[in-house]
Amino acid sequence: MPSLPAPPRIGLFKGLGLTLKTMLTPATTAQYPHVKPDLPPRTRGVIALMEENCTVCMLCARECPDWCIYIDSRKETVPAPGGGGRMRTRNTLERFAIDFALCMYCGICVDVCPFDALFWSPEFEYSTYSIRELTHERDQLRRWMDTVPPPPALEVGAETPGEIETGLDKARTQAEEQISAMLAAQRPAGEADADGGAVQTAAADEEPHVEAQVDQAVYDQLTADGVPERAARAKAKAHYVRTERARIKAERAESG
Amino acid sequence: METLFTLDNVWLALLLKVIAVLIIFLTVPLVMGYMEHKVLAHMQARLGPMEALPHGVGQLVADGIKFLQKENVVPAAADKWVFGLAPGVMLIPAIVVLTVVPFGPGAFAENLDAGIFFALAVSSIGTIGLLMAGWASANKFSLMGGLRGAAQLIAYELPMVLAAAAVVLQAETLSLVGIVEAQAGFRLFGTITIPYAVPHFFGLALFFMSAVAELNRPPFDMPIADAELIAGHMTEYTGIRFAFFLLSEYAGMVVFGALATVLFLGGWYPWPGYLLPEGFLGVVVGFGTTIGKIAAFMFLFIWLRATFPRLREDQLQRLSWLILIPLALLNIVIVAIAKVVA
């Protein structure tokens, strides 16, 4: 004899309650064409090209998994920089196009570009009636560049990036030289020494620049304690920089 | 009670009745269809149609125009005549039933002495249309859907008729108008007036479940079962013929909602025994009350659809034959005893 189905239980009414509750809760639907979506700032919408930075190295075209980047270039002969010497050849961009009908938005090209020529832009409204128009040529890609948001700010207390640091160092030394030259020209010869000292004390307050290198003793100690190699190396470097800076500061204080 | 259309000129009265029924038929199901769109959407955390006029109120009109301009495809192997007639056979009973449904005091086309009998009998004709569509489509899925539909009708017509019979027993009349009036005079143990829904609670539940099954609405939509039968008898239909099936489904929901209103909720009386204002105002209030109660039943139909998954075909048959029909018989026996004793 077939068994009777189990009688309906409270679950049926729980289900009804759930649907009723959902109905009374306002839907979170965004009415897209009328209401623009609130996208995160680093949204991957379209790829923009900063063609001034492009060196036609072809890395992006080669790394692209579905071969949607088309690059043409020509060799140009330019005079050697600074005059004199033989003529130099240089690659010049002729065509740069991305076929967004093929692109799968993996972003490998943006990651792989060594010269920061490719960027993600959050723009996404570029659908077309024809698939041909989805191949964005150089000028179009350059126009997307205007929609690229500025890079995210560094964290508070982060180290200044290397290239900026070197630039700053150069500027500081130049400024110091200029100041001392100016002072030397203004003051009589006898006072020049004392003024030079004052400039030096001002410089001593600043963080001295130290080229990082591994402190072998600390590194050995850390690896012996079982710290992984990479971490140990980083910590040893940091230790070296700290002690070296302290030493330089102490020296300056003595001499100043 | 006389209908509002009692005139000296019989033909003019007939014309007015036909126009009134057609207006009801073409508007109320549309309103209910819109309600289904929106309620179902919100129950699924969506918004539903929003573009055709504010909040998508014109969506069903737009859909109708779309259906009209679509091509009418007839499968090569189809039985052309039967295939073409089937949507009409489903649609016409829904219109005919509306002629006996009272929407307000006097707001009905005809007050038949055998009203409830007529309504239930005619509404079952639609299933012949379903069977015709299933057979003539020359499609395995359609045939399965048609056969399931027929089996479902046989299984669920019985508890529905039995539940309605219990009310008839109580009201001592088959006339739908008569049932409303009898309900208005009904007092629970001679104290307060109360709709039949209270003493006939099981009857109402049985009637409503059977109505859901008879209309092939989820969770009893095995004949349509879009996941397994790809819409059953409607698989091969396109364009305006497909729209006819949809329209007959919504008209059927309105009809069964109206029948349940008349049988169990006191018809056009906001509360049974509460006297309506005289004259035209009374008709308007009564009409509004009936539509409101039908809308409540529609909401229930939609609510069940949004909540419960589809049953299996054998579960459906077992539910009817082993549970609902015995309960309906028991219901009749209890009502009969109570009627004699009280």
What would you note in describing this structure?
The complex is a heterodimer of chains A (256) and B (342). Chain A is of the alpha+beta class and 256 residues long. Among the domains of chain A are: 46-147, Alpha-Beta Plaits, CATH 3.30.70; 194-256, no CATH class. Chain A has helices spanning 10-24, 59-63, 108-112, 138-144, 162-186, 192-205, 216-224, 229-255, and strands at residues 46-49, 69-78, 88-99, 118-121, 135-136. In chain A, the strands form 2 sheets. Chain A has a 3-stranded antiparallel beta sheet. In chain A, strands 1-4 form a two-stranded antiparallel ribbon. In chain A, helix 5 (162-186) packs antiparallel against helix 6. The model of chain A is unreliable at 195-199 (pLDDT under 50). With 342 residues, chain B is mainly α. Chain B has one domain (10-341). Chain B contains 10 helices and 2 strands. Chain B has helices at 10-43, 59-69, 80-98, 115-136, 140-171, 176-184, 201-214, 239-264, 279-307, 313-341; strands at residues 187-188, 192-193. In chain B, helix 4 (115-136) runs antiparallel to helix 5 (140-171). Chain B is globular, with a radius of gyration of 20 Å. Chain A binds chain B through residues 2, 4-5, 12, 15-16, 18-20, 22-23, 25, 27-29, 31, and chain B through 39, 41-47, 50, 303, 306-308, 315, 318-319, 322-323.
> Judging from the principal axes of the Cα atoms, what is the shape of chain B?
globular
Largest sheet of chain A: 3 strands, antiparallel
| Strand residue content of chain A | 5-15%
Shape estimate of chain A: extended
In short:
Chain A has 8 helices and 5 strands, in the order H-E-H-E-E-H-E-E-H-H-H-H-H. By secondary structure, chain A is α+β, with helices and mostly antiparallel strands. The model of chain A is unreliable at 195-199 (pLDDT under 50).
Sequence-ordered SSE layout with sheet pairings:
The complex is a heterodimer of chains A (256) and B (342).
Chain A: H1 10-24, E1 46-49, H2 59-63, E2 69-78, E3 88-99, H3 108-112, E4 118-121, E5 135-136, H4 138-144, H5 162-186, H6 192-205, H7 216-224, H8 229-255
Antiparallel strand pairs in A: 1-4, 2-3, 3-5
Helix pairs in contact in A: 5-6, 7-8
Chain B: H1 10-43, H2 59-69, H3 80-98, H4 115-136, H5 140-171, H6 176-184, E1 187-188, E2 192-193, H7 201-214, H8 239-264, H9 279-307, H10 313-341
Antiparallel strand pairs in B: 1-2
